[in-house]
């Protein structure tokens, strides 16, 4: 064939187009196979029972289906013909695309044979690669076509529906049906078709021999050659990494295996006639059990080869070779690849470290980066496809690698380095192209003995293009485009590889070497990202998700690999690289796959990181807890008794042995335990147990201290993390809708501590400024004072903050208002009598007849006492908040307290309440509690008028005043000097009376002082009348009850001792104090004597 014909045949252009087209057709065949193998995505009419007879008929008669005379068999198809056409058009056209692709492939292969093209991967790399790629792609398409079980039904049904709808079958059906029949046994037919192409195929494959042997060296040979090492020869560190065959250095071994296996499978005749072909083939058979056709579809190398050769005469020795090679693979390949992965972990880590430290080396040593990526990708893909497909093996460890994450991480690090320093690479290679490659190429062109015009024009354009490059283009951020230059070189390879070409490339190897170098250098300017995809794309994981997830799980179980686990979500970004424009419907699915798994991996990593940090925090918290004062009692006791008591050699049975100092430094096994601030609270809803606020605060501070120290190493925003976590804990629910410590402590104080205080098992002690548990015989009480003293309230305020304390206050007020509602009901029931009492309280005779008519007096006192207990606890909590606020924000506390001092009785009530609300939020006590006012305001009934509500409030105070004498009969109403209170908490009545009165009369806009004076007068008269009582049982604790009058005055800023003196002589209070003190000391004498 003449040179002119070689130009006209456009071999380079056809190979480029057909390879791309072939990939698209292959992906469409893959999609049809996947769709039809899954009942969920299968065409619906293929699953209908009514359609089964038609499907069987079409499958049996294919391709000779008589549509017109088979109405009884094809009735269901006729009914749904329009739907079938609509649904199967894409399927049918895809099969037609396969047929057309087949025609173009054979036409091109015949043309190449006619041109007697010479293939050599080391010289005409692009030409040889494209030729072998086309053969493999075509074979893969045919093999996948034969694996679609419903191919006859899909094609036949479409044609039947087409004939029913249009009156004639599809024009392509006859040839398409014949093709499908021919490829029922695909390899047998393919070997017949490729027989004439054996010379060209075997020649191309033999050119791989040296390269394939070199690339299949073991880890020891790699180590001896110091592969990928930049520091093995320091003087040559900045020398450019060059090769006569640049693209071959990072050519995938998996791709070469596919070429060799499929090539010799189709052109097996040369295996018996050519010892070099046989040698290369046997070497390739010893590498893998499976090769990839596309994605997760593989070819079982030895089984397929053995089955084919067993059916051929004269191939007995080749079958024996296959069996021998299979045994070799099973016995050795696992360890062979394991050792290579181990070598790569060390070598690539060294390479990455050097390049990260000196990124300027990416200029001369860019080839090393792409070689490293290619080597890693080959090892990972080998492991993935064998792990997926080798199900039964005596050595499962050969197909599992717990350290794979490190390789994946190094691959991502190298990719990141290349992207980050792209300008370094561009600047270096631009100068290389302009100042070296262009000059060398020019010299070679001038020394060519023969140079036809077409070739001369192409090569001259190379020189001029390269010579025009300058550094300003990189500095200005110009986009380079050398795809035209590379396509011209591809054309030149085709022109100079035909038999009758005047200029033969194999006779001018220097031209091939320099052009291969120029191609690589040009790719460093305009297609680095494409080269990264070519050498390191791991989108195969998108189709081996089970293996991907298993590798991730193994990584999380291996502590030394955790640092590399971030590689897995990064790999998910590769999934989009496996799409093709001929199958656009795949893109959303693959994108969602990538996003889903990326999110899952990141979520799991965040969870693992959180668990790890919280575990260390918990350990720090435990160490901090050991420093709490409560743990020193045992040590002090032992030290105190050491001189007098002989130390026991062994501890008592059941007594836990305490760790000695330093034990915390011993290395512990890692255990994953989820711990958080709520967990630290230790709340148990069943037993109503909870950690003391001060202990929780110490634990939280230990957590915060560790997180802050950890942030110094990680560069994390620890302050934001801490703020977010603690701020969430000041709300009733966190961002996940879970209960916080604010809710837990609010519930616990209300349901445990205050409920027991209401029942009389816990009392409020003003002297101790805490709630105190009363000892009960036979009962094991918790110490209420450990949860309610000043330090605990301060710790509670520190933990809950103003928001949390506001939530606590609102819950307390809800309980207060519940009691007020009941009190109002009792007042309404006794309203008539209370009105009379209010008018006649100074008339003893009339009072004697009115008082017995009152009902529920004890209930009134009980409910008012409960209110007092709640308000006393709130006052302590507010004091804790005030101290914390003063400590954190002293510059704010001063102005708030100053503003409060400016409030006078004449100030507008709305302004007063606004100022008091501000003060209350900072923990400052107020004469009128704004929270209580707001809570009571929400109780206003629509049916009652303000006047009636006001009347009820006035009568409530009267009811309380005349009920006080009833308290004297209660044995628990004895005033304790030690506790500064009563065992039945009636001293809390005073706070309830003052604060409820202030809130009620503020709400009704009445004078608080006037009504409290009225209460003082009525109460004084009632208690004075108690002095005339002759029944000793009723006057049992008269003196103690009298002291309540002074407590009322002390509690209120509206009352004074002078007001009290006017209605209740102070001498009575003095006598009462004396009697109470005498009784208290008399009661203690027997106990002390005992």
TrEMBL record:
Coiled coil: none
InterPro entries xrefs: Nck-associated_protein-1
Region listing for Disordered, in residue ranges: 639-669
Superkingdom field: Eukaryota
Annotated Basic and acidic residues bias: 652-666
Residue ranges, compositional bias (Basic residues): 639-651
Protein name from the UniProt record: NCK associated protein 1 like
Organism: Macaca mulatta
Gene: NCKAP1L
């Amino acid at each position: 064939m003449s040179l002119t014909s070689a130009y006209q045949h456009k071999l380079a252009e056809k190979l480029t187009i057909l390879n791309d087209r072939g990939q698209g057709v292959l992906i469409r065949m893959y999609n049809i196979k996947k769709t039809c193998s899954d009942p969920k995505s299968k065409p619906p009419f293929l699953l209908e029972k009514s359609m089964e007879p038609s499907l069987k008929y079409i499958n049996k008669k294919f391709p000779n289906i008589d549509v017109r005379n088979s109405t009884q068999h094809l009735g269901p198809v006729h009914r749904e013909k329009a739907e079938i056409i609509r649904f199967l058009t894409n399927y049918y056209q895809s099969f037609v695309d396969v047929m057309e692709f087949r025609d173009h492939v054979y036409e091109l292969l015949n043309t190449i044979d006619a041109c007697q093209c010479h293939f050599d991967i080391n010289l005409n790399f692009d030409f040889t690669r494209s030729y072998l790629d086309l053969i493999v792609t075509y074979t893969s398409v045919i093999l996948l076509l034969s694996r679609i079980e419903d191919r006859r039904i899909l094609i036949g049904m479409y044609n039947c529906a087409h004939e029913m709808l249009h009156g004639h079958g599809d024009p392509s059906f006859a040839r398409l049906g014949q093709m499908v029949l021919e490829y029922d046994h695909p390899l047998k037919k393919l070997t017949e078709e490729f027989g004439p192409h054996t010379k060209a195929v075997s020649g191309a494959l033999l050119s791989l021999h040296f390269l394939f042997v070199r690339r299949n060296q073991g880890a020891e040979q790699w180590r001896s050659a110091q592969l990928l090492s930049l520091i093995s020869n320091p003087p040559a560190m900045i020398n450019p990494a060059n090769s006569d065959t640049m693209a071959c250095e990072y050519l995938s071994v998996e791709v070469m295996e596919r070429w060799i296996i499929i090539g010799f499978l189709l052109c097996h005749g040369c295996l018996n006639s050519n010892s070099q072909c046989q040698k290369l083939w046997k070497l390739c058979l010893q590498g893998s059990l499976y090769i990839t056709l596309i994605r997760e579809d593989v070819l079982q190398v030895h089984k397929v080869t053995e089955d084919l050769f067993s059916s051929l005469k004269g191939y007995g020795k080749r079958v024996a070779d296959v069996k021998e090679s299979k045994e070799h693979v099973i016995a050795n390949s696992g360890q062979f690849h394991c050792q290579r992965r181990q070598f790569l972990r060390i070598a690539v880590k060294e390479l990455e470290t050097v390049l990260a430290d000196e990124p300027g080396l990416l200029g001369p040593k860019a080839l090393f980066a792409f070689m490293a990526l290619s080597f890693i990708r080959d090892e990972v893909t080998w492991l993935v496809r064998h792990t997926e497909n080798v199900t039964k093996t005596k050595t499962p460890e050969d197909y599992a690698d717990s350290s794979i994450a490190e390789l994946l991480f190094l691959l991502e690090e190298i990719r990141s380095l290349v992207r980050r320093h792209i300008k370094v690479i561009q600047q270096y290679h631009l100068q290389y192209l302009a100042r070296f490659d262009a000059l060398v190429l020019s010299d070679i062109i001038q020394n060519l003995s023969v140079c036809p015009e077409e070739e001369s024009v192409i090569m001259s354009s190379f020189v001029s293009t390269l010579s025009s490059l300058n550094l300003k283009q990189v500095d200005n951020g110009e986009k380079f485009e050398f795809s035209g230059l590379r396509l011209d070189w591809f054309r030149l390879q085709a022109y100079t590889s035909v038999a009758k070409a005047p200029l033969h490339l194999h006779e001018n190897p220097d031209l091939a070497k320099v052009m291969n170098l120029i191609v690589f250098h040009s790719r460093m300017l305009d297609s680095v990202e494409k080269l990264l995809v070519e050498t390191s794309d791991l989108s195969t994981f998108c189709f081996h998700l089970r293996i991907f997830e298993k590798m991730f799980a193994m990584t999380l179980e291996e502590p030394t690999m955790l640092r590399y686990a971030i590689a897995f979500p990064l790999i998910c970004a590769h999934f989009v690289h496996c799409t093709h424009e001929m199958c656009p419907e795949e893109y959303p699915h693959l994108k969602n796959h990538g996003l889903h798994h990326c999110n899952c991996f990141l979520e799991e990593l965040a969870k693992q990181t959180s668990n790890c940090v919280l575990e260390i925090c918990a350990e720090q918290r435990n160490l901090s807890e050991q420093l709490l004062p409560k743990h020193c009692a045992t040590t002090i006791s032992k030290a105190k008794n050491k001189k007098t008591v002989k130390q026991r050699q062994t501890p008592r049975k059941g007594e836990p042995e305490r760790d000695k100092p330093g034990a915390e430094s011993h290395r512990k096994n890692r255990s994953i335990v989820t711990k958080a601030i709520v967990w630290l609270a230790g709340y148990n809803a069943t037993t109503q147990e909870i950690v003391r606020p001060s202990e929780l605060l110490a634990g939280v501070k230990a957590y915060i201290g560790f997180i802050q120290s950890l942030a110094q190493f990680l560069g994390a925003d620890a302050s934001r993390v801490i703020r977010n976590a603690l701020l969430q804990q000041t709300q009733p629910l966190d961002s996940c809708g879970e209960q916080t410590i604010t809710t837990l402590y609010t519930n616990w104080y209300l349901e445990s501590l205050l409920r027991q205080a209401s029942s009389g098992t816990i009392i409020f002690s003003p002297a101790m400024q805490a709630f105190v548990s009363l000892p009960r015989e036979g009962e094991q009480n918790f110490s209420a004072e450990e949860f309610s003293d000043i330090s605990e309230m301060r710790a509670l305020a520190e933990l809950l903050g103003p928001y949390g304390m506001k939530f606590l206050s609102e819950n307390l007020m809800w309980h207060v208002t519940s009691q007020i509602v009941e009190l109002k009901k009792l007042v309404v029931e006794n309203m008539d009598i209370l009105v009379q009492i209010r008018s006649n309280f100074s008339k003893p005779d009339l009072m004697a007849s009115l008082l017995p008519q009152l009902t529920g007096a004890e209930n009134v006192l009980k409910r008012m006492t409960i209110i007092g207990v709640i308000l006393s606890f709130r006052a302590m909590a507010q004091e804790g908040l005030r101290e914390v606020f003063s400590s954190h924000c002293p510059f704010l506390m001063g102005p708030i307290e100053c503003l409060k001092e400016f409030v006078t009785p004449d100030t507008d009530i709305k302004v007063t309440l606004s100022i008091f609300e501000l003060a209350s939020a900072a923990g400052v006590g107020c004469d009128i509690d704004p929270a209580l006012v707001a809570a009571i305001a929400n109780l206003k009934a629509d049916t009652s008028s303000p006047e009636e509500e006001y009347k009820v409030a006035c009568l409530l105070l009267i009811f309380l005043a005349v009920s006080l004498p009833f308290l004297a009969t209660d044995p628990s109403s004895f005033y304790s000097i030690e506790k500064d209170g009563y065992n039945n908490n009636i001293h809390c009545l005073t706070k309830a009376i003052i604060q409820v009165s202030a809130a009620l009369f503020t709400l009704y806009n009445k004078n608080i002082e006037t009504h409290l004076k009225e209460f003082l007068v009525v109460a004084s008269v009632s208690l004075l009348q108690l002095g005339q009582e002759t029944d000793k049982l009723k006057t049992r604790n008269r003196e103690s009850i009298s002291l309540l009058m002074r407590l009322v005055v002390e509690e209120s800023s509206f009352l004074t001792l002078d007001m009290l003196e006017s209605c209740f002589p102070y001498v009575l209070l003095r006598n009462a104090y004396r009697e109470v003190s005498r009784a208290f000391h008399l009661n203690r004498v027997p106990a002390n004597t005992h």
